Amino acid sequence: MSSKYTQQEILDITQTFIQGNSDADFIQKKMYEGFDYPRPFRIFIFSKRNNSDHAVVDAPALEELGQIILKNNLHAPTNAYNLTLPSVNEMGGYHAVALMTDANTRTIWYQDSYGIEMRQELKDFFKQLFPDYKITCFNQIQQDKQRNDRSCYLVAEYNILDMWHRKTNHPQYLKEYDSSEARKAVWNIVKLIDDDTPSNNFYKAPKKAASKQVLSKRYILECKKNGYRDFKYRLTQEKNYPKLIKQAAQKTLALHNMYLKLLEQNFFTK
After folding, report:
1. Which strands make up the sheet holding 41-44, listed edge to edge?
2. Domain 7-197+211-269 is in which class?
3. What's the pLDDT at 49?
4. pTM for this entry
């Protein structure tokens, strides 16, 4: 068996794991061997606008996240998430962070490998959706923005495991990896990925246009222009931002209550 990756590819920042592909699932499964912790959910928090090279975190994206968390809370009080958001450092890029929610202790744990606080729109949304929850952010700097180290997805996985260790009072298992250490540590897992394993990337390239159809320069420029606009976009800059956040939380709760009523009626088993 030959590995799909070389060790040098893992240690360099030029070869990284694309969020959502089958290799990431393989790595996550191996990381959780020997632990009783449930594997985290992977959620993508963004909306894609037409003719744009960048995604945005808007009210619909927050509402979708809230509905997922509320539904998961019905099945287990504590749930972990590897969240993917649009990058604020690179147009067209994405960034992964770690999140855990605990309905029993009314707590939310969050960690960004850049060592920064939770994005304001996320924090404000959670405060509206879970007003009696305490939000704790772990601020260890694990990546350097200047190096543009793309291993945030992998670091987020380690951070989620650390959250489980903290929650279950097992400090001896804490890793607090930076991205270079995370890549070194994961090599023994990555080298087991067979070269014949097909990739199943979440971020698939757009379907190729028919051979006779060529994208116009005007369209390409429009996508770049819109992408730059969306790269700079922040929901927090909207004039009616507090109202938008409040409405997003209210809509999320209303949809969840509707979902609960359908559950009571056994709608989903019919």
Report:
1. 41-44, 78-86, 94-102, 107-111, 134-138
2. alpha beta
3. 93
4. 0.88
